[in-house]
Amino acid sequence: MDEVVTVGPLDLTARVDDALAVQALAFGLSESEIAVRRHIVVRHMECPGARAFGATTPDGRLVGFVYGMPNDRAHWWSTVVQPYLVREGAEGWLDDSFVITELHVHPAHQARGIGTRLLTTITGTAREPRSILSAIDIESPARRLYRSLGYVDLARRVHFPSAPRPYAVMGAPLPLRRR
Q: Is the per-residue pLDDT at 1 higher than 60?
């Protein structure tokens, strides 16, 4: 029988190590990558409007998390994706958008609707009329999830410094479509 998982607000700064442990398993991160991301996550949570939600088991184990914030064109992510969006005529998506910065579910808990619940919960709190995110530019369960909720490709073959694979930038009007 599937374990009951509750989705609710998450103090990501306090539980950053738990969240990064989930991300490491879901995304295949090394110890050095985790250390770098720890500082990034903590810094992101200080941004205006940043918020996080977690999926926890009855005993308090974190099995998934999502965080994001209103987009700011001065942030690193926006500066990297902006030329790609300009090329595709989609630069306007950088304005008045809520960015999904990270969404990860523990591999043992994937394909149970947790990612959908996390994504629809956080975007349901957004005041912005749309949401944007980036995902590895391959056909994957994550990309299928995003498409099922209304996200479409805005730019593909986006290269982030030090990322070995290209990404796609995706956007969706809010509220997200319900599956």
A: no
